[in-house]
Design brief:
11 helices, TLDc_dom, TLDc domain-containing protein, 29% helix
Length: 325
């Protein structure tokens, strides 16, 4: 007879052990005995029970453990499961599933939180209770009677965009918070179309470009370009300098002038770029604004390439594409 009791195994495979209640060790089921060999060996004698009971313990709130950093004296559920894995030759399938899921969520949590912040700024102005769509890549569903700029929370810029692009009805075709954020997902929606409006969101900055010529078919292992687009321009809608929405025209357009650049599906992490202006990458802090912006475009802001994000390298939080029909 030993003075401990074993609580039931919860959904995560975690087992709680307490002393001062009698139980028969033989009554334990085989799974429970197998998962906690070190706990049982620690409590085989009254001396070891006393030793284990007198060890200092730091309170730990499991409910907050996934949101706050673990202290040295408070181990995470994942740490506990790793210990069980070391001690046992066979694991409960639920333990393996939980450990794998926890490690995956830990590696993605920063990205999801950042996108949720962007969605709070843009989407949730219209839908305060809407769940962050970036966590599930579901097909983009649109209301045909709803304005496309209102869908993504850009209705405040609709008037100025229509001034820059008159007599064209815009349709939202790509949203990285709803669809895969990679070159394949982007190219599937834009290649073959013309009158393309691209909008990039990075933190509080919103900018983009307009391309009137047809987008060529992608090259799987290379780049394709749009050239000689007389109606092309780039713009800022919101920036750190609080400068009003402004569009910037190219200094010169000819048959050699490149505007849009699309990356192939088998290429690097680059998705799309506007030549001598911005390039969107999938990796954090790898998207860039070209320092030669002012030499290619008529910069009326006086801020040069910093007008877009305030720095040369940035993280793309959201990428949108519309086309005019």
């Amino acid at each position: 007879m030993n003075n401990i009791t074993i609580s039931t195994i919860n959904n995560y495979g975690i087992i709680s052990i307490h002393k001062n209640t009698s139980y028969q060790q033989d009554n334990l089921d085989t799974k429970t005995q197998h998962l906690i060999p070190q706990k049982l060996s620690c409590l085989q004698s009254s001396e070891s029970v006393s030793k284990c009971a007198t060890q200092p313990q730091t309170p730990c709130n499991p409910a907050n453990s996934f949101l706050e950093p673990y202290s040295k004296s408070c181990s995470s559920p994942a740490d506990s499961l790793k210990k069980v894995k070391t001690d046992s030759t066979t694991l409960n399938p639920s333990v393996i599933s939980f450990l794998s899921k926890h490690q995956k969520q830990s590696s993605l949590s920063t990205t999801k939180l950042r996108r949720q912040t962007v969605d709070d700024t843009i989407i949730k102005q219209k839908n305060p209770g809407k769940i962050n769509p970036s966590t599930s890549f579901t097909p983009l569903t649109l209301n045909l009677f709803q304005d496309p700029f209102e869908i993504v929370g850009l209705s405040k810029y609709e008037t100025v965009l229509k001034q820059w692009i008159p007599s064209i009805r815009m349709k939202l075709i790509y949203d990285s918070s709803q669809q895969f954020f990679d070159s394949k997902g982007f190219n599937e929606k834009v290649c073959g179309r013309k009158n393309l409006l691209i909008i990039v969101v990075s933190g509080k900055s919103i900018f983009g470009s307009w391309h009137s010529k047809q987008i060529p078919k992608e090259k799987k292992d290379g780049f394709v370009y749009v050239k000689n687009d007389e109606n092309h321009f780039v713009f800022t809608l919101r920036n750190i300098y609080n400068i009003n929405p402004t569009k910037f025209l190219p200094r010169e357009v000819n048959k050699y002038s490149k505007s849009l650049c699309l990356s192939g599906s088998k290429s690097s992490t680059c998705i799309v770029g506007c030549y001598s202006c911005y390039f969107v990458e999938t990796l954090d802090n790898e998207s860039t604004v070209d320092w030669s912006f002012s030499s290619t475009y008529r910069d009326t802001s006086g801020k040069g390439h910093l007008i877009f994000t305030g720095k040369q390298a940035f993280t793309t939080d959201r990428l949108l594409a519309f086309y005019g029909e």
